[in-house]
Amino acid sequence: MAQEDVFKKIVAHCKEYGFVFPSSDIYDGLAAVYDYGQNGVELKNNIKQYWWQSMVLLHDNIVGIDSAIFMHPTIWKASGHVDAFNDPLIDNRDSKKRYRADVLIEDEIAKYDEKIDKEVAKAAKRFKENFDEAKYRATSPRVIELQEKRDALHARYSAAMNAMDLNELRQIILDEEIVCPISGTRNWTEVRQFNLMFSTEMGSTADGAMKVYLRPETAQGIFVNYLNVQKTGRMKVPFGIAQIGKAFRNEIVARQFIFRMREFEQMEMQFFVRPGTEMEWFSKWKETRMKWHQVLGFGADHYRFHDHEKLAHYANAATDVEFLMPFGFKEVEGIHSRTNFDLSQHEKYSGKSIKYFDPETNESYTPYVIETSIGVDRMFLSVMCAAYTEEQLENGETRVVLKLPAALAPVKLAVLPLVKKDGLPEKAREIVNDLKFHFNTIYDEKDSIGKRYRRQDAVGTPYCVTVDHDTLNDNCVTLRNRDTMQQERVAISDLNGIIADRVSITSLLKKLQ
After folding, report:
1. Which pLDDT belongs to residue 129?
2. Which of 477, 481, 449, 445 is nearest to 462 (CA)?
3. CA-CA distance, 453 to 416, in Å (whole number)?
Protein backbone atom coordinates (compact mmCIF):
# COMPACT_ATOMS: atom_id res chain seq x y z
CA MET A 1 0.00 0.00 0.00
CA ALA A 2 1.29 3.46 -0.89
CA GLN A 3 2.45 5.47 2.10
CA GLU A 4 0.14 8.29 1.08
CA ASP A 5 -2.81 5.90 1.41
CA VAL A 6 -1.55 4.73 4.81
CA PHE A 7 -1.43 8.31 6.03
CA LYS A 8 -4.99 8.94 4.84
CA LYS A 9 -6.10 5.88 6.80
CA ILE A 10 -4.37 7.16 9.93
CA VAL A 11 -6.08 10.56 9.61
CA ALA A 12 -9.46 8.86 9.16
CA HIS A 13 -8.75 6.52 12.08
CA CYS A 14 -7.98 9.50 14.33
CA LYS A 15 -11.43 10.95 13.71
CA GLU A 16 -13.39 7.69 13.77
CA TYR A 17 -12.00 6.60 17.14
CA GLY A 18 -12.03 9.90 18.99
CA PHE A 19 -8.39 10.94 18.75
CA VAL A 20 -8.41 14.11 16.61
CA PHE A 21 -11.27 16.13 15.12
CA PRO A 22 -11.15 19.12 12.75
CA SER A 23 -11.76 22.19 14.91
CA SER A 24 -15.20 23.77 14.48
CA ASP A 25 -16.18 20.64 12.58
CA ILE A 26 -19.92 21.45 12.34
CA TYR A 27 -18.94 24.73 10.66
CA ASP A 28 -16.80 22.84 8.11
CA GLY A 29 -13.63 23.29 10.15
CA LEU A 30 -10.94 25.92 10.51
CA ALA A 31 -7.83 25.38 8.39
CA ALA A 32 -4.82 23.93 10.23
CA VAL A 33 -6.58 23.91 13.62
CA TYR A 34 -7.59 20.66 15.33
CA ASP A 35 -9.28 19.44 18.51
CA TYR A 36 -8.26 16.36 20.48
CA GLY A 37 -11.08 13.93 21.25
CA GLN A 38 -11.65 11.71 24.27
CA ASN A 39 -8.92 9.22 23.36
CA GLY A 40 -6.61 11.80 21.83
CA VAL A 41 -6.46 13.95 24.95
CA GLU A 42 -5.55 10.92 27.06
CA LEU A 43 -2.74 9.92 24.68
CA LYS A 44 -1.55 13.53 24.49
CA ASN A 45 -1.55 13.91 28.27
CA ASN A 46 0.40 10.65 28.65
CA ILE A 47 3.03 11.90 26.18
CA LYS A 48 3.33 15.14 28.15
CA GLN A 49 3.54 13.25 31.43
CA TYR A 50 6.31 11.00 30.06
CA TRP A 51 8.29 14.05 28.93
CA TRP A 52 7.68 16.07 32.10
CA GLN A 53 8.64 13.30 34.48
CA SER A 54 11.70 12.39 32.42
CA MET A 55 12.85 15.98 32.90
CA VAL A 56 11.87 17.01 36.44
CA LEU A 57 11.81 13.63 38.22
CA LEU A 58 14.95 12.10 36.73
CA HIS A 59 17.09 15.27 36.99
CA ASP A 60 17.57 16.98 40.35
CA ASN A 61 18.79 20.14 38.59
CA ILE A 62 15.74 20.66 36.34
CA VAL A 63 12.54 22.36 37.52
CA GLY A 64 9.39 23.45 35.72
CA ILE A 65 7.43 26.66 35.20
CA ASP A 66 4.26 27.75 33.41
CA SER A 67 4.62 31.19 31.82
CA ALA A 68 1.88 33.34 30.26
CA ILE A 69 0.97 33.29 26.58
CA PHE A 70 0.81 37.10 26.48
CA MET A 71 4.17 38.75 27.15
CA HIS A 72 5.57 42.26 26.97
CA PRO A 73 5.96 43.09 23.25
CA THR A 74 9.57 44.22 23.69
CA ILE A 75 10.46 40.60 24.49
CA TRP A 76 9.79 39.69 20.86
CA LYS A 77 11.87 42.61 19.67
CA ALA A 78 14.75 41.44 21.85
CA SER A 79 14.41 37.82 20.69
CA GLY A 80 14.50 38.83 17.02
CA HIS A 81 11.01 37.56 16.21
CA VAL A 82 9.65 40.97 15.21
CA ASP A 83 12.37 41.49 12.60
CA ALA A 84 13.51 38.01 11.65
CA PHE A 85 10.75 35.45 12.25
CA ASN A 86 9.89 34.99 8.58
CA ASP A 87 9.27 32.29 6.01
CA PRO A 88 10.26 32.67 2.32
CA LEU A 89 6.99 32.25 0.40
CA ILE A 90 6.31 31.82 -3.30
CA ASP A 91 3.00 31.65 -5.21
CA ASN A 92 2.06 29.72 -8.30
CA ARG A 93 0.08 32.07 -10.54
CA ASP A 94 -1.96 29.28 -12.13
CA SER A 95 -3.11 27.34 -9.06
CA LYS A 96 -3.15 30.44 -6.81
CA LYS A 97 -1.48 28.24 -4.16
CA ARG A 98 1.25 29.48 -1.84
CA TYR A 99 4.32 27.47 -0.86
CA ARG A 100 7.42 27.83 1.26
CA ALA A 101 10.31 28.18 -1.16
CA ASP A 102 12.70 26.36 1.16
CA VAL A 103 10.35 23.38 1.50
CA LEU A 104 9.97 23.09 -2.29
CA ILE A 105 13.75 22.90 -2.66
CA GLU A 106 14.21 20.52 0.29
CA ASP A 107 11.60 18.20 -1.26
CA GLU A 108 13.59 18.28 -4.51
CA ILE A 109 16.76 17.32 -2.63
CA ALA A 110 14.83 14.47 -1.00
CA LYS A 111 13.83 13.23 -4.48
CA TYR A 112 17.52 12.83 -5.38
CA ASP A 113 18.03 10.85 -2.17
CA GLU A 114 15.06 8.61 -3.04
CA LYS A 115 16.42 7.98 -6.56
CA ILE A 116 19.83 7.03 -5.14
CA ASP A 117 18.24 4.69 -2.58
CA LYS A 118 16.19 3.02 -5.34
CA GLU A 119 19.33 2.41 -7.41
CA VAL A 120 21.05 0.90 -4.38
CA ALA A 121 18.01 -1.25 -3.54
CA LYS A 122 17.84 -2.62 -7.10
CA ALA A 123 21.53 -3.50 -7.01
CA ALA A 124 21.17 -5.16 -3.60
CA LYS A 125 18.35 -7.30 -4.96
CA ARG A 126 20.44 -8.22 -8.02
CA PHE A 127 23.68 -9.13 -6.23
CA LYS A 128 22.09 -10.44 -3.01
CA GLU A 129 24.65 -11.62 -0.39
CA ASN A 130 27.57 -10.48 -2.56
CA PHE A 131 26.40 -6.86 -2.51
CA ASP A 132 28.85 -4.26 -1.18
CA GLU A 133 26.78 -1.12 -0.74
CA ALA A 134 29.68 1.25 0.00
CA LYS A 135 31.59 0.07 -3.09
CA TYR A 136 28.48 0.33 -5.27
CA ARG A 137 27.77 3.88 -4.13
CA ALA A 138 31.37 4.82 -4.90
CA THR A 139 31.55 3.21 -8.35
CA SER A 140 28.07 3.19 -9.93
CA PRO A 141 28.03 5.89 -12.66
CA ARG A 142 24.30 6.46 -12.17
CA VAL A 143 24.59 6.84 -8.38
CA ILE A 144 27.63 9.11 -8.74
CA GLU A 145 25.76 11.30 -11.24
CA LEU A 146 22.72 11.62 -8.97
CA GLN A 147 24.89 12.27 -5.92
CA GLU A 148 26.80 15.06 -7.68
CA LYS A 149 23.55 16.75 -8.75
CA ARG A 150 22.13 16.37 -5.26
CA ASP A 151 25.26 17.78 -3.59
CA ALA A 152 25.45 20.71 -6.01
CA LEU A 153 21.81 21.60 -5.36
CA HIS A 154 22.32 21.20 -1.62
CA ALA A 155 25.35 23.50 -1.59
CA ARG A 156 23.58 26.14 -3.66
CA TYR A 157 20.48 25.97 -1.45
CA SER A 158 22.52 26.21 1.78
CA ALA A 159 24.34 29.28 0.50
CA ALA A 160 21.07 30.97 -0.51
CA MET A 161 19.43 30.24 2.85
CA ASN A 162 22.40 31.42 4.87
CA ALA A 163 22.43 34.67 2.91
CA MET A 164 18.59 34.71 2.81
CA ASP A 165 18.94 35.52 -0.89
CA LEU A 166 15.30 35.44 -2.04
CA ASN A 167 16.17 35.95 -5.71
CA GLU A 168 18.53 32.99 -5.62
CA LEU A 169 15.90 30.78 -3.97
CA ARG A 170 13.51 31.57 -6.82
CA GLN A 171 16.22 30.96 -9.39
CA ILE A 172 16.95 27.53 -7.89
CA ILE A 173 13.24 26.65 -8.20
CA LEU A 174 13.29 27.74 -11.86
CA ASP A 175 16.60 26.02 -12.69
CA GLU A 176 15.49 22.75 -11.08
CA GLU A 177 12.20 23.02 -13.01
CA ILE A 178 10.19 22.50 -9.84
CA VAL A 179 6.48 22.47 -10.65
CA CYS A 180 3.43 23.31 -8.58
CA PRO A 181 1.91 20.03 -7.28
CA ILE A 182 -1.58 21.35 -8.10
CA SER A 183 -1.26 23.02 -11.51
CA GLY A 184 1.84 21.21 -12.72
CA THR A 185 3.23 24.52 -14.04
CA ARG A 186 6.34 26.58 -13.29
CA ASN A 187 4.59 29.96 -13.36
CA TRP A 188 6.10 31.26 -10.11
CA THR A 189 5.96 34.70 -8.49
CA GLU A 190 8.89 36.33 -6.71
CA VAL A 191 9.87 34.99 -3.28
CA ARG A 192 9.00 37.25 -0.37
CA GLN A 193 9.22 37.16 3.41
CA PHE A 194 6.17 36.71 5.66
CA ASN A 195 6.19 37.21 9.45
CA LEU A 196 4.55 34.32 11.28
CA MET A 197 3.46 36.02 14.51
CA PHE A 198 -0.19 36.61 15.37
CA SER A 199 -0.78 40.06 16.86
CA THR A 200 -3.65 41.54 18.83
CA GLU A 201 -4.30 44.53 21.09
CA MET A 202 -4.35 44.69 24.86
CA GLY A 203 -6.18 47.43 26.74
CA SER A 204 -8.96 49.88 25.93
CA THR A 205 -8.84 51.56 22.55
CA ALA A 206 -9.83 54.84 24.18
CA ASP A 207 -6.80 54.68 26.45
CA GLY A 208 -4.47 53.67 23.66
CA ALA A 209 -4.22 49.91 23.25
CA MET A 210 -0.82 48.19 23.24
CA LYS A 211 0.04 45.81 20.41
CA VAL A 212 0.90 42.37 21.80
CA TYR A 213 1.67 39.01 20.23
CA LEU A 214 0.53 35.46 20.79
CA ARG A 215 3.81 33.79 21.62
CA PRO A 216 5.35 31.92 18.67
CA GLU A 217 7.44 29.79 21.06
CA THR A 218 7.51 29.01 24.78
CA ALA A 219 11.27 29.49 25.23
CA GLN A 220 11.19 33.24 25.89
CA GLY A 221 8.94 32.72 28.91
CA ILE A 222 11.74 30.63 30.39
CA PHE A 223 14.48 33.14 29.57
CA VAL A 224 12.76 36.12 31.17
CA ASN A 225 12.10 34.03 34.29
CA TYR A 226 15.51 32.38 34.47
CA LEU A 227 16.85 34.63 37.23
CA ASN A 228 13.60 34.38 39.26
CA VAL A 229 13.86 30.59 39.20
CA GLN A 230 17.60 30.58 39.88
CA LYS A 231 17.31 32.78 42.95
CA THR A 232 14.13 31.36 44.48
CA GLY A 233 15.20 27.78 43.80
CA ARG A 234 18.84 28.43 44.76
CA MET A 235 19.83 26.72 41.53
CA LYS A 236 23.47 26.32 40.54
CA VAL A 237 24.71 26.22 36.95
CA PRO A 238 24.27 23.84 35.21
CA PHE A 239 20.51 23.71 35.69
CA GLY A 240 17.43 23.51 33.52
CA ILE A 241 13.91 24.94 33.32
CA ALA A 242 11.16 22.91 31.66
CA GLN A 243 7.81 24.09 30.33
CA ILE A 244 4.84 22.73 28.40
CA GLY A 245 2.58 25.27 26.72
CA LYS A 246 0.71 26.53 23.70
CA ALA A 247 2.36 28.54 20.93
CA PHE A 248 0.92 30.15 17.81
CA ARG A 249 2.25 30.68 14.30
CA ASN A 250 0.39 32.07 11.32
CA GLU A 251 1.50 29.26 9.04
CA ILE A 252 0.54 30.03 5.46
CA VAL A 253 1.57 26.58 4.29
CA ALA A 254 -0.04 24.45 6.99
CA ARG A 255 -0.21 20.83 5.88
CA GLN A 256 0.02 17.14 6.69
CA PHE A 257 -2.72 17.00 9.29
CA ILE A 258 -1.43 17.96 12.78
CA PHE A 259 2.21 18.07 11.64
CA ARG A 260 2.10 21.81 10.95
CA MET A 261 -0.62 23.79 12.70
CA ARG A 262 -1.36 27.37 13.64
CA GLU A 263 -2.07 26.56 17.28
CA PHE A 264 0.19 23.90 18.74
CA GLU A 265 1.85 22.78 21.95
CA GLN A 266 5.54 22.60 22.82
CA MET A 267 7.58 20.79 25.45
CA GLU A 268 10.76 22.79 25.94
CA MET A 269 13.66 22.61 28.33
CA GLN A 270 16.33 25.30 28.48
CA PHE A 271 19.55 24.10 30.14
CA PHE A 272 21.84 26.85 31.45
CA VAL A 273 25.57 26.06 31.36
CA ARG A 274 28.93 27.70 31.93
CA PRO A 275 30.33 29.34 28.74
CA GLY A 276 32.83 27.03 27.07
CA THR A 277 31.05 23.84 28.16
CA GLU A 278 28.10 24.17 25.80
CA MET A 279 29.29 21.74 23.12
CA GLU A 280 29.85 19.02 25.71
CA TRP A 281 26.32 19.53 27.03
CA PHE A 282 24.95 19.72 23.48
CA SER A 283 26.32 16.22 22.83
CA LYS A 284 24.98 14.89 26.12
CA TRP A 285 21.50 16.19 25.47
CA LYS A 286 21.51 14.78 21.93
CA GLU A 287 22.19 11.34 23.39
CA THR A 288 19.65 11.77 26.20
CA ARG A 289 16.86 12.93 23.94
CA MET A 290 17.39 10.21 21.32
CA LYS A 291 17.22 7.58 24.06
CA TRP A 292 13.94 9.11 25.29
CA HIS A 293 12.42 8.53 21.86
CA GLN A 294 13.84 5.06 21.28
CA VAL A 295 12.67 3.72 24.65
CA LEU A 296 9.15 3.76 23.19
CA GLY A 297 10.16 0.71 21.16
CA PHE A 298 9.33 1.76 17.61
CA GLY A 299 12.80 0.80 16.36
CA ALA A 300 16.06 2.73 16.07
CA ASP A 301 15.69 2.79 12.28
CA HIS A 302 12.69 5.12 12.67
CA TYR A 303 14.91 7.92 14.02
CA ARG A 304 17.85 9.93 12.81
CA PHE A 305 19.66 13.19 13.54
CA HIS A 306 19.61 15.93 10.92
CA ASP A 307 22.18 18.66 11.48
CA HIS A 308 21.12 22.14 10.42
CA GLU A 309 22.70 23.61 7.31
CA LYS A 310 21.51 27.11 8.18
CA LEU A 311 21.92 28.00 11.83
CA ALA A 312 19.48 30.38 13.47
CA HIS A 313 20.91 33.77 14.40
CA TYR A 314 21.21 32.69 18.05
CA ALA A 315 22.80 29.24 17.61
CA ASN A 316 26.30 27.81 17.27
CA ALA A 317 25.07 24.22 16.86
CA ALA A 318 21.70 22.68 16.00
CA THR A 319 20.28 19.31 15.11
CA ASP A 320 16.83 17.78 14.70
CA VAL A 321 15.55 14.41 15.83
CA GLU A 322 13.66 13.20 12.78
CA PHE A 323 11.08 10.43 12.76
CA LEU A 324 10.08 8.31 9.77
CA MET A 325 6.50 9.41 9.02
CA PRO A 326 4.51 7.96 6.09
CA PHE A 327 5.58 11.10 4.20
CA GLY A 328 9.30 10.72 4.98
CA PHE A 329 11.70 11.61 7.79
CA LYS A 330 10.40 14.74 9.51
CA GLU A 331 11.46 16.82 12.50
CA VAL A 332 9.78 16.09 15.83
CA GLU A 333 12.36 17.66 18.14
CA GLY A 334 15.07 20.30 17.89
CA ILE A 335 18.23 20.42 20.01
CA HIS A 336 20.07 23.74 19.85
CA SER A 337 23.06 25.41 21.42
CA ARG A 338 21.62 28.93 21.70
CA THR A 339 24.83 30.51 23.13
CA ASN A 340 24.05 33.44 25.46
CA PHE A 341 22.09 35.30 22.79
CA ASP A 342 18.67 35.33 24.44
CA LEU A 343 19.78 36.30 27.93
CA SER A 344 22.14 38.97 26.58
CA GLN A 345 19.37 40.44 24.42
CA HIS A 346 16.92 40.59 27.32
CA GLU A 347 19.58 42.21 29.48
CA LYS A 348 20.17 44.79 26.75
CA TYR A 349 16.50 45.57 26.05
CA SER A 350 15.32 45.53 29.68
CA GLY A 351 18.30 47.47 31.00
CA LYS A 352 18.54 45.05 33.95
CA SER A 353 21.40 42.75 34.84
CA ILE A 354 20.50 39.08 34.73
CA LYS A 355 24.03 37.70 35.04
CA TYR A 356 24.71 34.64 37.16
CA PHE A 357 27.31 34.73 39.94
CA ASP A 358 29.20 31.44 39.97
CA PRO A 359 30.45 30.64 43.50
CA GLU A 360 32.85 28.02 42.14
CA THR A 361 34.72 30.40 39.82
CA ASN A 362 33.92 33.55 41.80
CA GLU A 363 32.82 35.37 38.65
CA SER A 364 29.63 36.70 37.09
CA TYR A 365 28.68 35.70 33.55
CA THR A 366 25.73 35.26 31.22
CA PRO A 367 25.07 31.51 30.96
CA TYR A 368 24.99 29.70 27.65
CA VAL A 369 21.87 27.67 26.87
CA ILE A 370 21.22 24.22 25.44
CA GLU A 371 17.62 23.89 24.28
CA THR A 372 15.57 20.77 23.72
CA SER A 373 12.24 21.59 22.07
CA ILE A 374 9.70 18.97 21.05
CA GLY A 375 6.31 19.51 19.45
CA VAL A 376 3.59 17.66 21.39
CA ASP A 377 1.40 17.41 18.29
CA ARG A 378 4.21 16.12 16.10
CA MET A 379 5.15 13.63 18.78
CA PHE A 380 1.50 12.56 18.94
CA LEU A 381 1.46 12.09 15.16
CA SER A 382 4.69 10.07 15.16
CA VAL A 383 3.31 7.76 17.85
CA MET A 384 0.08 7.25 15.91
CA CYS A 385 1.93 6.58 12.65
CA ALA A 386 4.28 4.05 14.28
CA ALA A 387 1.47 2.32 16.19
CA TYR A 388 -1.09 2.01 13.36
CA THR A 389 -1.05 -1.58 12.12
CA GLU A 390 -3.21 -3.68 9.81
CA GLU A 391 -2.83 -7.40 10.47
CA GLN A 392 -4.01 -10.37 8.44
CA LEU A 393 -5.44 -13.01 10.76
CA GLU A 394 -5.48 -16.77 10.24
CA ASN A 395 -9.20 -16.73 9.49
CA GLY A 396 -8.64 -14.31 6.61
CA GLU A 397 -9.95 -11.26 8.43
CA THR A 398 -7.99 -8.03 8.85
CA ARG A 399 -7.74 -6.30 12.20
CA VAL A 400 -6.66 -2.70 12.72
CA VAL A 401 -4.68 -2.32 15.92
CA LEU A 402 -2.85 0.59 17.50
CA LYS A 403 0.27 -0.94 19.01
CA LEU A 404 0.80 1.98 21.36
CA PRO A 405 3.35 1.71 24.16
CA ALA A 406 1.17 0.55 27.07
CA ALA A 407 2.22 3.52 29.21
CA LEU A 408 0.95 5.96 26.57
CA ALA A 409 -2.30 4.17 25.68
CA PRO A 410 -5.46 6.21 26.39
CA VAL A 411 -7.18 3.26 28.08
CA LYS A 412 -5.11 0.68 29.96
CA LEU A 413 -7.78 -1.93 30.64
CA ALA A 414 -11.26 -2.65 29.27
CA VAL A 415 -13.52 -4.88 31.39
CA LEU A 416 -16.07 -6.80 29.31
CA PRO A 417 -18.95 -8.92 30.67
CA LEU A 418 -19.53 -11.87 28.37
CA VAL A 419 -23.28 -11.22 28.40
CA LYS A 420 -25.47 -8.42 29.78
CA LYS A 421 -27.22 -10.61 32.38
CA ASP A 422 -26.78 -13.22 35.09
CA GLY A 423 -24.86 -10.83 37.34
CA LEU A 424 -21.88 -10.50 34.95
CA PRO A 425 -22.27 -6.72 34.38
CA GLU A 426 -22.36 -6.16 38.14
CA LYS A 427 -19.18 -8.18 38.63
CA ALA A 428 -17.49 -6.34 35.79
CA ARG A 429 -18.46 -2.96 37.29
CA GLU A 430 -17.01 -4.10 40.59
CA ILE A 431 -13.65 -4.77 38.92
CA VAL A 432 -13.72 -1.37 37.16
CA ASN A 433 -14.51 0.45 40.39
CA ASP A 434 -11.57 -1.21 42.11
CA LEU A 435 -8.95 -0.68 39.38
CA LYS A 436 -9.92 2.82 38.15
CA PHE A 437 -7.96 4.36 41.02
CA HIS A 438 -4.75 2.83 39.66
CA PHE A 439 -5.03 3.31 35.89
CA ASN A 440 -7.61 4.27 33.26
CA THR A 441 -10.11 1.40 33.24
CA ILE A 442 -13.36 1.33 31.26
CA TYR A 443 -16.47 -0.85 31.06
CA ASP A 444 -17.79 -2.02 27.66
CA GLU A 445 -20.85 -4.22 27.12
CA LYS A 446 -22.09 -3.24 23.62
CA ASP A 447 -21.85 -5.76 20.72
CA SER A 448 -20.37 -9.26 20.64
CA ILE A 449 -17.19 -9.99 22.56
CA GLY A 450 -15.26 -10.23 19.26
CA LYS A 451 -16.40 -6.80 18.12
CA ARG A 452 -15.51 -5.35 21.51
CA TYR A 453 -11.99 -6.79 21.24
CA ARG A 454 -11.63 -5.19 17.79
CA ARG A 455 -12.86 -1.85 19.10
CA GLN A 456 -10.33 -1.89 21.93
CA ASP A 457 -7.58 -2.94 19.50
CA ALA A 458 -8.41 0.10 17.37
CA VAL A 459 -7.98 2.53 20.27
CA GLY A 460 -4.82 0.79 21.47
CA THR A 461 -6.05 -0.67 24.79
CA PRO A 462 -3.24 -3.04 25.83
CA TYR A 463 -5.39 -5.35 28.00
CA CYS A 464 -8.96 -6.60 28.04
CA VAL A 465 -10.62 -8.63 30.78
CA THR A 466 -13.63 -10.83 30.10
CA VAL A 467 -15.99 -11.67 32.94
CA ASP A 468 -17.84 -14.97 32.31
CA HIS A 469 -20.10 -17.26 34.31
CA ASP A 470 -17.13 -19.10 35.85
CA THR A 471 -15.93 -15.78 37.27
CA LEU A 472 -18.84 -15.77 39.74
CA ASN A 473 -17.56 -19.06 41.17
CA ASP A 474 -13.74 -18.88 40.98
CA ASN A 475 -13.15 -15.08 40.99
CA CYS A 476 -10.96 -15.45 37.91
CA VAL A 477 -11.19 -13.65 34.57
CA THR A 478 -9.76 -14.06 31.07
CA LEU A 479 -6.97 -11.53 30.45
CA ARG A 480 -6.29 -10.77 26.76
CA ASN A 481 -3.09 -9.19 25.43
CA ARG A 482 -3.67 -6.67 22.60
CA ASP A 483 -0.53 -7.39 20.58
CA THR A 484 -0.39 -11.20 20.81
CA MET A 485 -4.16 -11.77 21.28
CA GLN A 486 -3.16 -14.49 23.75
CA GLN A 487 -5.53 -15.13 26.65
CA GLU A 488 -4.85 -16.42 30.12
CA ARG A 489 -6.95 -17.11 33.17
CA VAL A 490 -5.96 -14.95 36.14
CA ALA A 491 -7.38 -14.18 39.55
CA ILE A 492 -9.16 -10.83 39.92
CA SER A 493 -7.02 -10.12 42.97
CA ASP A 494 -3.88 -10.38 40.78
CA LEU A 495 -4.99 -7.97 38.04
CA ASN A 496 -3.52 -4.82 39.57
CA GLY A 497 -0.19 -6.52 40.20
CA ILE A 498 -0.02 -7.89 36.65
CA ILE A 499 -1.08 -4.74 34.82
CA ALA A 500 -0.14 -1.66 36.90
CA ASP A 501 3.61 -1.65 36.40
CA ARG A 502 3.38 -2.45 32.68
CA VAL A 503 1.06 0.47 31.94
CA SER A 504 2.61 3.13 34.17
CA ILE A 505 4.88 5.97 33.00
CA THR A 506 7.35 4.60 35.56
CA SER A 507 7.89 1.57 33.31
CA LEU A 508 9.29 3.91 30.64
CA LEU A 509 11.27 6.06 33.06
CA LYS A 510 13.10 3.02 34.46
CA LYS A 511 14.44 2.29 30.97
CA LEU A 512 15.99 5.77 30.81
CA GLN A 513 18.09 5.26 33.93
Report:
1. 83
2. 481
3. 9
